[in-house]
Predict the 3D structure of the following.
Amino acid sequence: MQDEYRTVAREGVHETEISRSRFLCALAPAATEEEAQAFVARIRKEHPTANHNCYAYVIGADASVQKASDDGEPGGTAGVPMLQMLTRREMRYVVAVVTRYFGGVKLGAGGLIRAYGGAVGEALDTLGTVTRRRFRLATVTIDHTRAGKMENDLRATGREVRDVRYTETVAIEIGLPEGDVERFRAWLADVSAGTAGFELGGEAYG
């Protein structure tokens, strides 16, 4: 399993003009294939008069799902170069839709490949990317009297506090790098004088 992956920093649109054709590249993070397809459908709805709405997406930290569509452009001249740009930049959990408004000048196969791939590359440069790292979810349980100090100590040492739940005890959910688990156990036992519980959960990215 990948220890980290890169994705687009935020949803956005970048426009370029090539030989009078407008190319609008919409990019968005997508956690699932369903999210990616919903984004494609939304962009198509926003541009019903466009000549083409070509798309590509990569889902999974290991890029296990990859799809591309030329949407009426000559085969292999739009979706594939878009997908190649995403994979070359090692992008994951991302969807790109390039909307083309034809300007009257034919670009030829090579021109289309450069235009569609380039539109995605420029959009990535404009919107920026972020790296997400894999970590283990863990829950610290502690009594109410010590909970406030424990939460402060966790934040002060740079731990990511994801959730705090109050029942008979207080459960503080945190994210830990895999290599930090044993060191954290020792730290927790020390600062809580052995009164805090600790339970490891599943894996996530953040």
Summary: The mean pLDDT is 94. The chain has five helices and ten strands.
